[in-house]
Amino acid sequence: MQKTGRQLAMLAVINGLLLVAGALISGGSFLSLFNLQSMASQVPEIGLLAIGVMLAMCAGNGGIDLSGIALANLSGVLSAVIVSSFISAAESGTAFSLAFILGALLVGLAGGIINGVLISRLNITPILCTLGTQMAFMGLAVVVSGGKAVTVGSPALLSGIGNDMIAGVPISFLVFVLVAAAVAALLKFTPYGLWLMLMGTNPKAAVYAGFPRNGVIVATYAISGLLSGLVGIIIAARNVNVKFDYGSSYLLIAILIAVMAGVKPEGGYGRVVCVVLSAIALQLMSSLLNFSGLSNFVRDFAWGLLL
Predict the structure, then answer these.
(1) Neighbours of 156 (CB within 10 A)
(2) Between residues 202 and 220, which one has the greater pLDDT?
(3) Is 291 in contact with 22 (CB distance < 8 Å)?
(4) How far apart are CA 8 and CA 103, in angstroms?
(5) pTM above 0.90, yes or no
């Protein structure tokens, strides 16, 4: 509990300092409503991926999900190609949006289950497994799309998720917060959460205690895959099209967010609220670098250096 309190306090202080620094550098415009809304709309993509990384790390045994952004892109590309073949986004916007959302979630879930089954049943090291599936997911997205961007368009329902607001807060950010709260509740109030953390702390003891090891691993990567599918939806909602190589630096950032949040790479510890605050801090840093006039290449160098 003390460690959790220190981590939360540290992240809260970091976020506060970044807001103050941004206000001083920009003369106050950093804290304008428009800029805060813009930053909030950019957090969900990397934040959801980071939660998936956190879950995989908590499972222990070197667990990590390197396939998150590749699966997110595949979810958007494959769903867009399939759905657009029988539903027109221009003529039936609501039907297209609902079918696209369902398709992306199913693709993400399927990809996550594949990762979980390969790791649990074949005992493949998670980092090698997800590196391989990352390449496979990207390759499949290239084949399906022909290496080109796939147009999704701007149907009202889908576009609203990525661009509209409720009470001045971006809908995509509200979705991120609600999903994060749901995952946090899952970890805190269900047997799955207890099994996941104890298995990450001592895998052998968990097996001898009768924990459903394979089931926990499959469920963990399935949830991570589902989060990737949701990221694919948000990417499509914020853009007119989807592409196989979107967000090439997101993997590094997602891992960095998890590390900053205090997630133990060896497993057994991680808190969703810390991941949320860490994601917000990384977005504040990114925007602060932009306000300072530095290029995106300097930003990526800073992320790597910080990690």
Answers:
(1) 10
(2) 220
(3) yes
(4) 36
(5) yes
Helix/strand/coil for 83: helix
The one-letter amino acid at 5? G
Six-digit token string for 281: 């801090």
* Structure tokens that stand for 294 in this block: 């530095």
- Residue 3, token pair as written in the block: 């460690």
Q: In this structure, which amino acid lies at residue 109? A: L
CA angle, 153 then 235 then 299, to 5°:
130
- Report the distance separating Cα 271 and Cα 139, nearest Å: 33
Token pair 């892109």 is found at 73
Residues belonging to the chain:
307
**Distance separating alpha carbons of residues 262 and 2, to the nearest angstrom:** 13
Residue 307 pLDDT more than 70?
no
pLDDT digits (tens, 9 = 90+) for 199-209: 877 777 777 77
- What are the structure tokens assigned to 190, written together? 């269900």
3-state SS, residue 70? helix
pLDDT tier for residue 4 given thresholds of 50, 70 and 90:
low
Distances (CA, A) of 219 to 20, 21, 121, 132, 294: 41, 41, 13, 19, 41
Alpha-carbon span 35 to 38, nearest angstrom: 5
The DSSP code sequence of 85-122 is TTS-TTT-HHHHHHHHHHHHHHHHHHHHHHHHHHHHHS
